[in-house]
Design a protein that fits this description.
The protein is mainly alpha-helical and 172 residues long. The protein has helices at residues 2-10, 17-28, 30-45, 48-75, 81-84, 102-117, 119-138, 144-170. Helix content is 77%, strand content 0%. The longest helix is centred in the middle third of the chain and has 28 residues, at 48-75. The model has no long low-confidence stretch (mean pLDDT 93).
């Protein structure tokens, strides 16, 4: 099923230049817009809530991407699609373990924390995380299961950090 869904999504690559450009933008540059949006949102709040959201998000993304994801990759090394099948690659990437997706873990953790602070903006961030993640499959560097695994890691990390930080603040 992973291969079938991958082949379907990757089949959108290489059809039209404008579509390739769109997917490359989503996979490689939308992430900067989301991080910038988080900072802008924190500034917009102009209070302690915005600062807490920024700090909690930072901790959650670092925890999900550089701790949980790397622990999983240490025990389970899954090759990237371009290492094992013929794919149309839109994005250059080094070889190495693909599961879970670090990008998905990072941006779903970010979206989850923002969502727990503000459901409307959190939904926008979730949409961005989904677009980034799908475009990385279309671009040929992740399997759909990598994205699903990264999303689960990110969402659970975001929830965990949000409540740990909330309880920590309540005890002070």
């Amino acid at each position: 099923m992973d291969l079938t869904l991958f082949n379907y999504l990757n089949s959108f690559a290489g059809r039209f230049d404008w579509l390739d450009t769109f997917f490359i933008f989503l996979a490689s540059y939308l992430e900067y817009w989301l991080v910038g949006g988080l900072v802008a949102l924190a500034i917009f709040y102009r209070n302690q809530r915005g600062f807490r959201m920024l700090i909690d998000s930072l901790i959650a993304v670092l925890f999900s991407r550089f701790i949980v994801t790397e622990i999983i990759r240490f025990f389970y090394a899954k090759p990237r699609p371009f290492e094992v099948v013929d794919v149309y690659r839109l994005i250059d990437h080094s070889t190495g373990s693909a599961f879970p997706s670090g990008h998905a873990a990072f941006f779903f953790a970010l979206a989850m924390v923002v969502f727990l602070y503000d459901r409307v903006w959190g939904s926008v961030f979730f949409a961005g995380a989904v677009l980034i993640s799908i475009s990385r499959v279309v671009g040929g560097i992740h399997w759909p299961a990598d994205i699903l695994g990264g999303a689960v890691v990110g969402i659970l990390s975001g929830i965990l950090i949000f409540y740990v930080m909330k309880n920590r603040r309540a005890t002070k």
